[in-house]
């Protein structure tokens, strides 16, 4: 197709209707665009704020085709989709960004790592698991990762000794060295149709070790400016290596020895950049809309340092969400609260987030941790 876009009547499609799609849709609606989301759950978070929802799975070819053909531009809030159904549509000229070929490369974490390695981008030592005996090939401790489908801590297994082999991932997987981590860093890189690139500040991620889910994010990361520039240069090289269009969350390890290693890339809005809604001139959610529709990229300037904390479903509960402590946390200074509108909670499910602003990052972190202790998402059904 490749016809000029009519921004007065632009129809944007989003594959995925969770919290990322919801906030993306809100930003697109602010710009006057018509939004249709595809998600298997009726009245999903993004469906609640969009113009239309196609109820269908991410591997339902007919529904994917329907979305693509009724929208001027289509993008993603998740990468686990049927790219084989999308490739012919992209080849016919339909605007799908990032391209399904880029999504396919990123979907397979082993192929993603091989590709980055071939481009000279620093990654941890890795090895394919072709037979069960390969699980010992890098020695112990070692990290085993599923090639496809891993998300929010799932699909990752730390094998500390031979005793842990009984817990090994049974599907297609690969091994990665156990990196001696000093900090886990992330950065969002935006790249539009014209090849314009913009980077957000480097952030520092803290993880809930029980389930390996990102717990909180500090923006900016507590690292030297020269190191931050190195992270930016590596992240841009990653995105330009596969000519990505959209926004990309690049996760990295800073080792105890001071080396930067790329962990993995997400071809969509990323949990590490929720802080941009309040803290940056242009949020990551507006930025992806700009990038995939060929508009100029917005400023990524950090207006004020901030700390974002994920609000996870409490252990021991599921069912309809029950919120505890909301008045108390909103009484704290410079706190923004986001609840995603999910109808069902379960342990460790991402239900919302808070962002705390302060020119003193340490004070923001202390206030964020206080809010986290106060606020709880429980459910109507004890487990």
From TrEMBL:
Residues 113-293 form the ATP-grasp domain. Signal peptide: none annotated. It catalyses: 5-amino-1-(5-phospho-beta-D-ribosyl)imidazole + hydrogencarbonate + ATP = 5-carboxyamino-1-(5-phospho-D-ribosyl)imidazole + ADP + phosphate + 2 H(+). Its EC number is 6.3.4.18. It comes from the Bacteria. Keywords: ATP-binding, Ligase, Nucleotide-binding, Purine biosynthesis. Pathway: Purine metabolism; IMP biosynthesis via de novo pathway; 5-amino-1-(5-phospho-D-ribosyl)imidazole-4-carboxylate from 5-amino-1-(5-phospho-D-ribosyl)imidazole (N5-CAIR route): step 1/2. The keyword GTP-binding does not apply. It is an enzyme of class 6 (ligase). ATP binds at residues 109, 145, 176-179, 184, 263-264. SUPFAM superfamilies: Glutathione synthetase ATP-binding domain-like, PreATP-grasp domain, Rudiment single hybrid motif. One of its GO terms (molecular function) is 5-(carboxyamino)imidazole ribonucleotide synthase activity. Pfam families: ATP-grasp, PurK_C, RS_preATP-grasp-like. NCBIfam families: PRK06019.1-5 (NF004679), purK (TIGR01161). Homodimer. Belongs to the PurK/PurT family. Catalyzes the ATP-dependent conversion of 5-aminoimidazole ribonucleotide (AIR) and HCO(3)- to N5-carboxyaminoimidazole ribonucleotide (N5-CAIR). Catalyzes the ATP-dependent conversion of 5-aminoimidazole ribonucleotide (AIR) and HCO(3)(-) to N5-carboxyaminoimidazole ribonucleotide (N5-CAIR). This is N5-carboxyaminoimidazole ribonucleotide synthase. It comes from Sulfurospirillum tamanense. The lineage of its organism: Bacteria, Pseudomonadati, Campylobacterota, Epsilonproteobacteria, Campylobacterales.
